[in-house]
UniProtKB/TrEMBL annotation:
Domain annotation NAD-dependent epimerase/dehydratase: ranges: 10-251
Protein name: Diaminohydroxyphosphoribosylaminopyrimidine deaminase
Entry keyword set: Oxidoreductase
Pfam families reported for this sequence: Epimerase (PF01370)
MF terms in GO: oxidoreductase activity, acting on the CH-OH group of donors, NAD or NADP as acceptor
SUPFAM superfamilies: NAD(P)-binding Rossmann-fold domains
Length: 352
């Protein structure tokens, strides 16, 4: 791909989201005109933080009303853009109807955005926010990988509508993206595949992401008697935004990028908060025993099934991040910095 013209606007779907907010901030600071595609531009409480960033940045932001499930609703926002970021997708594990609440918005949304790109002659590159969930369902699957680590070559084949439907939605959505990308030759596709994204939200009172709930539970006493050693990948939200930025503006960027700073688990994450916040908050001091989680997990949260606990607690998670470090020159923040900065936002806003 040739270089993106920096005088042209850049479109971001789901611009008020957790990752998207930091990406929009970066684009504004770099002087771009951002076409922010959002559900309801009139909801000022959702956009005020972006307006404030725009006011003190060289770039400008313009809002466009768009709906993931409405074909063609991104056409106006995309007009004249060479670079499109598609970040909008539901992230929750607590849904009543996985087909309606997860699969359809993820897959149809991806289809709508990418088919619009095909009809918009200016578009040269599309960067889609996928997930490591499109690579694996359970940490235990790492044992079946060629070198004992997840890589970009691996696809999730184990999630379903009944088991880990969120992971299933991310897999189907990314597969749809590649299918559309391969059916045309006008633009190229790059996907960013983060694991668990943590770090400070730009708009704490409107953030509803799952990572926010985990952080809240660490501080409100939910895990006081012990945090699970639930194996996972971990990455700072600011690093994910930076990875998106580089994926858009590095001509040689190609394919999928596992975007993970650390291989860790929930207990290890919680321990990084003790030095600064341990005196004042009921943070976990020990790891929850697996047998206990196995007994009580299903009663605490329906996504904590016994199968899930067996396959993820006390199981080491590992990804190979050599591709993103080499091709996008990415470095990642330490876990402690991410956790402290994120928890401080909860403290400052009286959320814990």
């Amino acid at each position: 791909m040739s270089q993106i013209d920096r005088s042209k606007p850049v479109m971001v779907t789901g611009a008020t989201g957790y990752v998207a907010g930091w990406l929009v901030k970066k684009l504004l600071e770099e002087g771009f005109t951002v076409h922010a595609a959002v559900r309801d531009p009139g909801k000022k409480e959702k956009t005020v933080h972006l307006d404030e960033i725009a006011d003190r940045s060289p770039g400008t932001i313009k809002y466009f009303k768009s709906d993931l499930l409405k074909p063609g609703s991104y056409a106006e926002a995309m007009a004249g853009c060479e670079l499109v970021y598609h970040t909008a997708s539901p992230f929750t594990t607590d849904v009543d109807d996985p087909q309606r609440d997860l699969i359809e918005p993820a897959v149809k949304g991806t289809e709508n955005v990418l088919l619009t790109a095909t009809k918009t002659p200016s578009v040269k590159r599309v960067v889609v926010t996928s997930s490591c969930a499109a690579i694996y369902t359970d940490a235990s699957e790492v044992q079946d990988t060629p070198n004992g680590a997840f890589t970009e070559a691996i696809w999730n084949t184990t999630a379903s509508l009944d088991y880990q439907p969120y992971s299933y939605s991310k897999t189907l959505a990314e597969k749809k993206a590649w299918e559309i990308a391969e059916s045309q030759s006008q633009w190229d596709l790059v996907t960013i595949n983060p694991a668990l994204v943590m770090g400070p939200p730009l708009n704490p009172h409107a953030t509803t992401s799952e990572s926010f709930n985990i952080l809240k539970q660490m501080g409100d006493g939910t895990f006081k008697s012990g945090a699970p050693k639930l194996g996972c990948g971990f990455v700072d939200v600011r690093d994910v935004a930076e990875a998106h930025y580089r994926a858009g503006f590095t001509p040689a960027a190609d394919g999928r990028y596992i975007t993970v700073g650390h291989n860790t688990d929930f207990f290890e994450m919680s321990q990084t908060l003790l030095p600064k916040f341990g005196e004042d908050y009921p943070l976990p001091k020990s790891a929850a025993p697996k047998w206990l989680l196995w007994l009580i997990g299903p009663f605490i949260n329906k996504s904590l099934s016994r199968k899930f606990i067996s396959n993820n607690v006390n199981v080491e998670w590992k990804a190979d991040t050599s591709k993103i470090r080499r091709e996008l020159d990415m470095e990642f923040r330490p876990i402690q910095e991410t956790m402290e900065d994120a928890f401080q936002v909860l403290v400052d806003n009286n959320i814990v």
